[in-house]
Description:
The chain is an alpha+beta fold. The chain has helices spanning 15-19, 23-32, 47-53, 63-70, 85-93, 106-110, 125-136; strands spanning 6-13, 36-43, 75-83, 119-121. It has a single domain (6-43, 77-135), classed as Nucleoside diphosphate kinase-like domain (Alpha-Beta Plaits), CATH 3.30.70.141. It contains 7 helices and 4 strands. The longest helix is centred in the C-terminal third of the chain and has 12 residues, at 125-136. The relative contact order is 0.24. It binds uridine-5'-diphosphate (UDP) and magnesium ion.
Amino acid sequence: MIMSNTEQTLSIIKPDAVERSLDNEIKEMFKNKGFLIVKEKKIQIEKSEAEKFYKVHETKPFYNDLCAYLSSGPIVVMILERENAVSGNRDLMGATNPNDAEEGTIRKKYGISIDKNSVHGSDSVENAKIEIDFFFKD
Ligand code: UDP
Ligand code: MG
């Protein structure tokens, strides 16, 4: 029996990457790994929206800077679809700190620092649904 597990996940190209005009190169990396970009939009969000989006991190010392940063410039928000999209996207992104990211990952290639690490990706199927709704529910 052939088992398929098509999933969707939320990806964000963060301000540091959009600012350097890396969005098309990063989108190519997704497509080359078999991801379909189902929906996408380039937007800039308010700090209050970033605070909602990153609420799980509200007790962390980096929370305020993180929310200020995500709302500091344009971002590209995408719904990516593929087999095992959630874990596949995390693999392609690489470690949170670009210094620890493996060769061939987006963060290794483009990340500047742990805060300016170029991309966000949902960390579970459940959170992917919540994050997709956050940006694309209309
Ligand atoms: N972050 C940070 N300092 C830290 C840890 C995280 O600035 O010490 C930022 C970083 O940009 C990261 C985001 O907070 O992407 C969310 O953290 P998380 O642990 O969820 O990492 P991710 O899921 O993005 O790899
Ligand atoms: Mg995370």
